[in-house]
Design a protein that fits this description.
four-stranded mixed sheet; 2 helices; 2,3-Dihydroxybiphenyl 1,2-Dioxygenase, domain 1; single chain; alpha/beta
Length: 122
């Protein structure tokens, strides 16, 4: 038995807006929306999938709201410099990097429209 992958699920006020940001700024493909109006959306890029669920309270729930320097997801990549250039060209909100960390990784950190912070590391 092998664990194969994980799909973080972020709570957001507008799942369509969130999914479109990942498509337009981070190069993900929208896999679909569920119900009308949408209350759930899924996006995928290569082997990485991220889900969005509509907030009952009308607000996002990023980890950075609970801890100032935290991350909500970490995604391993094989060319962080090329990804940085792609994200920069697409107009993504890059908040850090590329930077070489003391633990041997080279990373960029982006923040999405709802405040979720995602690191991409090599």
């Amino acid at each position: 038995m092998t664990l194969k992958s994980i799909a973080p699920q972020f709570v957001v006020p507008d799942v369509v807006r969130a999914a479109e940001y990942y498509r337009d700024k981070l190069g993900f493909k929208i896999l679909g929306y569920f119900l009308t109006p949408p209350v759930f959306a899924m996006v995928r890029r290569d082997g990485v999938e991220i889900h969005r669920g509509k907030s009952d309270a009308g607000a996002a729930s990023p980890g950075s709201a609970r801890r100032s320097d935290g991350l909500d997801a970490y995604i391993w990549v094989d060319d962080v410099n090329a990804l940085y250039e792609e994200f920069r060209t697409r107009g993504a909100n890059i908040v850090e990097g590329p930077v070489d960390r003391v633990y041997g990784r080279r990373e960029i950190v982006v923040r999405d429209l709802d405040g979720f912070r995602i690191a991409f590391g090599q």
